[in-house]
Amino acid sequence: MLKKRRSRPIHQVIKDTIKKDFDVSVTTRLIIVAALCAALPVLPAGASVFGAAVDDSRWEVAPSLLECRMSHPIPVFGKAVFTQRAGEPLAFHLDAWQNPMQQGEARISVEPPAWKPHSERVGLGKVPVRAGVKPIVLDSDLAARILEELRRGNSPTFTRTAWYKGAEEVRVAVSAVNFQSVYRDYMACMAQLLPVNFEQISRSVLLYSSEKWRLSAANRERLDLIVRYLKADPTVAQIYVDGHSDSYGRRIFNRKLSKQRAYVVTAYLLDMGVSEEMITTRYHGERFPVADNRKKAGRDRNRRVTVRLEREDPAARVARGSTLEEDSGVRLSEEP
């Protein structure tokens, strides 16, 4: 004879189901937390760690034709900054609001992400730590290595003793979270970066063969680069074109030759779309040599046209309510 199965009250069924789901949820969460903790690097006792949390990590790109800058805010510390200026190698520095690191040497290590628990920390050596708001500045090779490690999902970390407590260590971590999408923007900026910056193009020298005044292929190439730069940097207000000669031959002939050289350069710039109001053209004959005219090598250097670019006076920019950055996206170079 079959026994009749007693049915449980509905409220008891619901209660048991909730308890079961809760137990599974708690167990699952504990397993996840344990795995994450096992993947995290072990910190020395008394270490102060500066780094962005996973849900607070962000990267920013400030692009222009003259500089590509990518930065990562580090809460309470400051930021990590990659800078690629036109015509210069890649640079990296830590920008600290208040530098907690003691002067000396910091260790650089690469921390694997939490989702690679079996990967090991890799040391990259030591770098100098300086006083001031830029405690760490890396050369181009090490900056490129740091950039590559971030692209792989790793987090570069800088460790140094704190200046305010003898035994305590300061660790500054650069998070790779949310790096990839911004990295693509940064590389796009790099692709359109000009090959020269203002310091490299603002003083150009065009050389000539004896008694010649027509532009050589090298001279035209340099002028094309000047024009390209002018189109990217509207803060350039004046262009000075100065023609020169060596002392070989009659002075009146040399003066005329320097005039021809200068005005051919000016005509080329005008043909390329440079405003006539920006250009001041002068010629000096043999009056201002830069080398000894008694030697052939010296005369070769003296037969020249110089093209000098001058930016608008900073006070004038302030007076009209704009800055260099607002005008062109150019950032004034900061001394490391």
Strand neighbour order, sheet with most strands: 1-10-9-6-7
- Give me the count of strands: 14
Largest sheet: 5 strands, mixed
Query: Uncertain segments of ≥5 residues (pLDDT<50)?
Result: 1-5, 17-45, 327-336
Which structural class matches the secondary elements?
Answer: alpha+beta
Query: What is the count of helical runs?
Result: 9
Name the shape in a single word: elongated
Radius of gyration: 32 Å
Strand content: 25-35%
Helical content band: 25-40%
Report how far the terminal alpha carbons are from each other: 93 Å
The average pLDDT score comes to: 84
Question: What string gives the helices and strands in order?
Answer: HEEEEEEEEHEEHHEHEHEHEHH
Explain this structure to me?
The protein has helices at 10-39, 140-151, 179-191, 198-201, 217-232, 251-271, 296-302, 314-319, 324-328; strands at residues 48-50, 60-63, 67-74, 78-85, 91-96, 104-111, 122-129, 136-138, 155-161, 169-173, 203-207, 236-243, 279-283, 304-311. The chain is α+β, with helices and mostly antiparallel strands. The strands form three sheets. It has a five-stranded mixed beta sheet. It has a five-stranded antiparallel beta sheet with strand order 2-3-4-5-8, with helices on one face. The N and C termini lie far apart (93 Å).
Question: Which keywords apply here?
Answer:
336 residues; alpha+beta; 9 helices; 14 strands; elongated; disordered C terminus
